[in-house]
Design goal:
Blueprint (H helix, E strand, L loop, with lengths): L5 E2 L18 E3 L2 E3 L6 E5 L7 H14 L3 E5 L3 H16 L6 E5 L3 H7 L5 E4 L1 H4 L12 H25 L2 E7 L5 H7 L3 H17 L5 E6 L3 H17 L6 E3 L7 H16 L6 E2 L10 H10 L15 E2 L24 E5 L16 E4 L4 E4 L6 E5 L12 E5 H4 L7 E4 L1 H6 L8 E5 L6 H8 L4 E5 L6 H14 L6 E10 L1 H16 L6 E8 L8 H4 L8 H15 L8 E4 L10 H12 L6 E5 L5 H5 L4 E7 L2 E6 L2 E8 H14 L10
Parallel strand pairs: 4-5, 4-11, 5-6, 6-7, 7-8, 8-9, 9-10, 10-11, 13-16, 13-22, 16-17, 17-18, 18-19, 19-20, 20-21, 21-22, 23-24, 24-25
Antiparallel strand pairs: 1-12, 2-3, 14-15, 25-26, 26-27
Helix pairs in contact: 1-2, 2-3, 5-7, 6-7, 7-8, 8-9, 9-15, 9-17, 14-15, 15-17
Length: about 675
């Protein structure tokens, strides 16, 4: 990472003091967003838009779950016209929720919908453009001609929105950037931003400003960078449009929540975002509670403990670069991010307890086996197990206990112990540090502490930015010791732990910060919603250690920092979906979840399919009623095969490309 101090190009009000980024106010019916309004929650129906009653009843469930807005797909003229029946029925039942029409390929449907609903969403990559993965070398003149063509197609919608007082979201998706944008800007956050700005400038040319912007991607790193870059570009052009946040194709269950919270939460931490949609492969009424949990965390966040301001950045926030550290006993350097398991609260530690963190003891052959989600470090506190730990699992004790049992183990020092101690491990030492400990004396000692790994903690309400501030100080002082990020959560539900830890760890990891992760948690009980997709990951009689270990590995996977399992890019379903997406996703997951490192995309329709497939190894896309098209990368391998046989056909293709392995039946 370049340690050169860069002039701070703002993408938020402050990196250290929480405050909402101020945007202009946009009215969506009677519920405005942006400016000083609360962060609004929305979701999208999954029913057939032509089924008025089903769509109305699902919309009501969404509103009662917490949605401020309801989005409905309008893939064609008839669906757009039926939005009026849906709206009238909702009003008849006493619901004034603003409706949003979701449009991709059909300008005529958008123009119909704009006269009916309160807001229209268009995707600039699909609305007046095309994507065939062709690289075209445009001259400036040819590029300008393309922009004129887009202006002619898009301006009629802008004029209708202006006339009817309809809001407009220009929603860029990473997976559907046009050939024109890809040819000039590449498959990049900059390309996403420019795709939206081209349409935004057309709107402003018509003196139309009732606009919301979004930069969605299935990759949280790309998503966060794109939003930051968008704000920078808007600042340059004196634009201050509200932002709709979301991680697209996040999937369902625990993984979908982790990925969504990672991307959305990283931006919310910096006060960015005016409306959010959590895209889960579940019924839409289950998205709103997740979104509300994320948003409600920032109520009264302004009252946090003060953090020393940061006027300049020692890293580039618009590109991912890992902070450079030296290696200590396999931690830091070029090693993958390590996972710490905390067993310090246990009264005793039997051999089989280590199965909770991925280690399995076979007494018959006196051998340990481990899986792909095995922790790397175990913190034992003052507990000394009565058996030999697996080779490769680093045991760490409190300093006082380590002095009595320092054979093949390592000490964790408090700040005071570290400064006064003369006894250290010759190989590896851990030092617990908070921001208030960063004295010149400690920093000077760390520069000479070539065996010291920092364990970075925080008790600040605004903890992630405080920990980020410490990383910046280490960069500015040129202190390259590895850092393990530690967070403690007390009296928290499992659902909130998943969301909050994903935000807190993930926001730092996607900045390139952190050589290890360590979570300490005390759960409280909470009745879970009557939702099979939530219950599928809320496991009863599972130890805290196992739960935390699983979630930490899930966060590393979502941040694309450490891959320990199959990665699924699954859309949340909508009225365009041509098969049972939830059922199919679970079936594919069950059959392929052992294929570590493989990325499989499961898309209900073609809207974002090919683009997101470009980031996946294999793709499963609805192409007709109960018809599936299978992809290898971005290339079609089998077209329009019956859905009944499609999952087995997908497995055949994986086998043919030598990416299949038989499940471990141990």
């Amino acid at each position: 990472m370049n340690n050169t101090i860069a002039k701070f190009r703002t993408y938020c009000n402050s990196l250290t003091k929480y405050s909402r980024y101020k945007t202009r106010e946009v009215f969506v019916g009677e519920i405005p967003l942006g400016a000083g309004n609360p962060i609004r929650i929305q979701s999208m129906t999954t029913t057939d838009t032509m089924n008025t009653i089903a769509t109305v009843e699902q919309s009501i469930r969404m509103v009662e779950a917490g949605c401020d807005y309801v989005r409905i797909t309008a893939p064609g003229k008839f669906e757009a016209e039926n939005l009026l029946n849906i709206k009238n029925e909702l009003r008849k039942r006493g619901y004034k929720v603003p409706l949003i029409a979701d449009i991709h390929f059909t300008p005529n449907a958008a123009e119909i919908a704009a006269r009916i609903v309160e807001k229209v969403r268009i995707n600039p990559g699909n609305y007046a453009d095309k994507k065939s993965f062709r690289n075209i070398d445009y001259t400036d003149s040819e590029y300008d001609q393309e922009l004129d063509r887009i202006r002619q197609k898009f301006t009629p919608l802008v004029k209708i929105c202006k006339e009817y007082g309809t809001a407009l979201r220009v929603g860029t998706n990473h997976g559907s950037l046009s050939d024109r944008i890809m040819s000039r800007y590449g498959d990049s956050p900059l390309g996403m931003v420019e795709s939206a700005l081209e349409f935004l400038r057309i709107c402003e040319g018509e003196n139309y400003y009732n606009i919301v912007l979004s930069m969605k991607s299935s990759n949280p790193k790309v998503m966060v960078q794109a939003y930051r870059l968008l704000i920078q570009k808007m600042e340059d052009e004196k634009m201050y449009y509200p932002l709709h946040l979301g991680v697209t194709e996040a999937g369902g269950g625990e993984d979908g929540r982790i990925k969504s919270a990672l991307g959305i939460g990283a931006l919310l931490e910096d006060g960015i975002g005016d409306t959010i949609r959590v895209s889960l492969t579940e019924d839409p009424e289950f998205e709103a509670p997740v979104a509300l949990s994320l948003v409600n965390r920032y109520k009264n966040r302004e009252n946090h403990q003060e953090i020393k301001p940061l006027e300049a950045l020692p890293y580039n926030p618009y590109e991912y670069t890992k902070r450079q550290t030296f290696e200590i006993s396999g931690i830091g350097g070029n090693n993958t991010v390590r996972v710490v398991a905390d067993f310090s609260k246990r009264n005793s530690i039997p051999v089989n307890a280590l199965a909770d963190i991925g280690y399995y003891y076979n007494a018959d052959i006196d051998k340990w086996n481990m899986n792909d989600s095995a922790a790397d470090i175990i913190f034992l506190g003052d507990n000394v197990p009565d058996f030999d730990l697996p080779t490769g699992l680093k045991p760490v004790y409190n300093y006082s206990s380590w002095k009595k049992n320092n054979d093949k183990s390592f000490p964790l020092f408090t700040f005071a112990e570290y400064l006064k101690s003369e006894e250290f491990s010759p190989d590896l030492n851990f030092l617990s540090v908070r921001i208030e400990d960063l004295s010149d004396l400690l920093l000077s000692k760390l520069k000479n502490g070539k065996t010291t790994v920092i364990v970075l903690e925080s008790e600040n309400l605004h903890a992630m930015p405080e920990q980020r501030r410490v990383f910046c100080e280490l960069l500015l002082r040129n202190i390259p010791n590895p850092v393990i990020i530690k967070r403690t959560y007390n009296n928290i539900t499992l659902e909130d732990f998943i969301l909050f830890s994903s935000t807190d760890f993930g926001a730092l990891l996607i900045e390139g910060f952190g050589d290890g992760v360590w979570a300490e948690c005390l759960f409280i009980e909470k009745d879970q919603p009557d939702n099979v997709y939530v219950k599928s990951f809320v496991q009863t009689n599972v130890s805290i250690e196992k739960t935390i270990n699983r979630i930490l590995f899930g966060i590393l996977q979502a941040a694309r920092i450490r891959i320990s399992k199959t990665d699924y890019i699954a859309c949340p379903s909508c009225g365009r979906t041509l098969f049972d997406l939830q059922e199919t996703t679970e079936l594919i997951r069950k059959k392929t979840e052992h294929l570590k490192g493989l990325k499989i995309a499961i898309m209900g329709c073609i809207v974002n399919g090919p683009g997101e497939m470009a980031d996946a190894d294999y793709g499963y896309v609805g192409s007709g009623i109960d018809k599936i098209t299978l992809y290898k990368g971005k290339e079609i391998v089998r077209r329009n095969i019956p859905a009944l046989n499609a999952v087995e056909s997908l497995i055949e293709i994986i086998r043919e490309n030598n990416d299949w392995q038989d499940p471990n039946l141990e």
